C-alpha cells in the first residue's frame, strides 16, 4: 500500500538521482511532462475498460483488448474516447508500450518523441479541447537536449530510468482523493526550492498561497476565479481546496501565463487535480500587453470574476512595451499610468478591473507599493478614495526562494461600505527559520486569517486605520505608521539602579501572575520605599508556589478534562474514517475545535495549541488516516510492509529489504509497550558496556603517564592508532607476567574488561536481533485492544503534556521577567561604592606590603 507521502518522497528522490547536473527549473518540464503523459495513457485505458464493460481484468488484459478493438474498429473507438476525454492515446503510443519496450530491450527514444508528436497532431486535428494542445511541444520536451545526456545512448538510458520511475503508479486510482494532484504540486514546490531565482516564474510558496486562499475563500459565493499571472496554477488550486464540495464542482478556473513551458505546467496541474477541461480556461499570453479575458459585448468593463488572486513578478521594468495609455479601461480608475520602471500597480489594476462587485482580490507585492511616491502615490490615493483597499498584511522577508525582500498581501474589494476602515496586520515577526528561508507556521497563517475574519485589533499586531488616520499620513500605508512594534525590553529605571528595589510599576505589568495568583504575588514582596519593592523569597520558591497553586491546578484539571473529551471524540472519528476525501475536513475540524477549546481559558495561547495539532497531523495523522481510509483501522494495524534501505554507492547502489515495519503501528512503540522486559534487559547490558568503556578509557589514559604502574604494565598493549588495548597483546604480556605482581593484576583487569565487553556486545547484538524479529512478527498478530493502546499512544501520547505546558508557559515567562528585574537592580550605587572602598583598601594593603618588602 503506497501513500501520498511515500509517492512524494520516492518521486523526489528519483528526480534528484536522475537529473544529474541538469538545472531543476528545466528538468521539471521533462519529469512532470512524462508524469502527465502517464496519466493520459492510464486515463485512456481506464475509459476503454469502463465503456467496454471490463471489470476485474489486469491492466495488460485491458491493453490487449484495447489493441484488438482498435485493430478492428479504429474510427468508432477513437470517436468514443474523444467524446468522453477530449483526447485519446493510441495503443502503440501508450506509456505502457514504452515500458514493455524497455523491458524487452527494444526501446528507442524516437518512440517517445513519435508518441508525443502524435498526441499533439491528434489534438490539433480534432480540436476537441484547447486544454491539451501544445502540452508536449518540442520547445517544452526536447528529447534531443544534450542536458539529458551528451549522446544518444546516455539520453536513452536517462529517459528510460525516468519513464520507469512512474511505471507502477496507477494515475487514475491516485487521482481519487487528490493523491496524484498533491504529489504533482509537491514536486513543483520541491523544484521551485531547487531552482532559486527562477522559481518566481512558476511558484508561490505554499504558506503565502494559504494566507491568500483562505481569505479569498471567505467570499460569500465563488463560481469563477481568475489568476492573471497563473504560474503553475497553485494559487487557483489552493483557493478551491478551501471551498465546499458543491462550490468546487461548479467552479470555473481562469488564468493567463506568459511563459509557454509554465503555461503547459498550469494546464497539467489543473487536469491532474481533477479539474474538468470545460471548467478551465487558461491562456498563453502577456497579461499587461493585452487585456484578457475580454467581453466583446462590454469592452470597457472586462470579464468579472468572484475571486482574483495574483503573485505577479515584482517591480517589472519597462512593462509598458505596448505603449498603453491611461485611457485603457484597466487604468482609468487610477487616473494615471503606473511608472514604466515598476509594474506592480499595473498588475494590481489589471486584477482589480476584472474583480466583480461582490468579489475579493488578493495580490502579493513588495512593500514599496505601500509608501512609494510619484504616480504610485497618486494611484494609492485614488484606490483609497474609492474605498477599494480592504486589508494590508505585512509578511516576513525571505519567504520566497527568488527574493529576500519582505512582501505584503493586499486584499481589495469593490463593494465595501463607506467609512469602513482599512485593516492593517503586521505578521512580519511571526515565523520560524528553516535553513536560509523564513517560514510561516500553520498557527501564524491561522492567526492572520482569523484577524482578517474578525477584523480585530491587537496591540503590536493589528489595527483598523480610519480614513482620517490615512489622510493624516498623506495616504502612506507603510505598516509601522499604524502599528507600533511591541517592545519586550523593559525600560531601565535610574532610581532603582541608584537606590535598589524593583519598580512597582513593573510588578503590575505582570498581568498573568497578577490575575492567576494575586495572593502569592502580593505576599512575595515588600515595599522598601514609595513605588519600589523587593522580593521576600527566591524566584525558585515562588515558581513552586505558583505552579502548585490551587487556581493553576484546577485550571489544569479543567483543561485536561476538556482535552480528554476532545481526544475521545476524534479517536473514534479517526479510527472509522473510510473516505480519503473526508480527511481534509476532519483535519480542519480538529484544528478549529482545539482553538475553541483553549479560547475558553484565560492566558493560554490558542494558536500554540493549534500548532500542536497541526504537527500531530503532519508527523502522524496525514499518512495514517490515508492508509485507514483505504483499508480499515484494525486491518491497517495488523499490516506490515518491507523496510527498504539503500546500500552501496555509485554503480553498486541498490535497495534491499531490512526487515519489516508496521503500516501504521510503530515498531518502536511495540517494543516499548509489549516487550518492555526485553528492552530493559538490553538497556542494562548497554549501560554496563558504557561503564566498561569508561573504565578502559581511564586505564588507557593512565598507561600514558610516564613511570606509572599502568605505564609500565600496560603501555605495550596499547594500539596507538585506535587509542585502545589489543586483546592479543594483553594476553601475550600476561603469559610473561608473574602472578600476584602489580603488572599481572593490571593486565588481568584489562583482559577481564575486554572479555566482558566482547561477551556483552555479542549478547546485545543477539538480543536486539531477537527483539527486532519478535516485534516484526508480532505486528500481524496484534489484538484489537493492543492496536488501540499503541495507536492512542502514537497519536495522543504527548498531547496532554504539550497542552499543559501552554498553561505554565506564560506564568514561567513572567517569573523569568521578575528574576531579571531582581538581578538588574540587585547592585545599587551604595553597594558599588562599598565594593569600590573594599577594593581600594585591599590595594592600599598590597602597596604597604610592597614598601615593607623593599626596605
From TrEMBL:
Keywords: Coiled coil, Methyltransferase, Restriction system, S-adenosyl-L-methionine, Transferase
Membrane-traversing stretches: none
Residue span(s) of domain DNA methylase adenine-specific: 176-488
InterPro entries in the cross-refs: D12N6_MeTrfase_N, DNA_Adenine_Mtase, DNA_methylase_A-5, DNA_methylase_N6_adenine_CS, Restrct_endonuc_T1M, SAM-dependent_MTases_sf, T1MK-like_N_sf
One GO-annotated biological process of the protein: methylation
GO molecular function: site-specific DNA-methyltransferase (adenine-specific) activity
Pfam name, any one: N6_Mtase
Family as reported in the entry's similarity comment: Belongs to the N(4)/N(6)-methyltransferase family.
Full protein name: site-specific DNA-methyltransferase (adenine-specific)
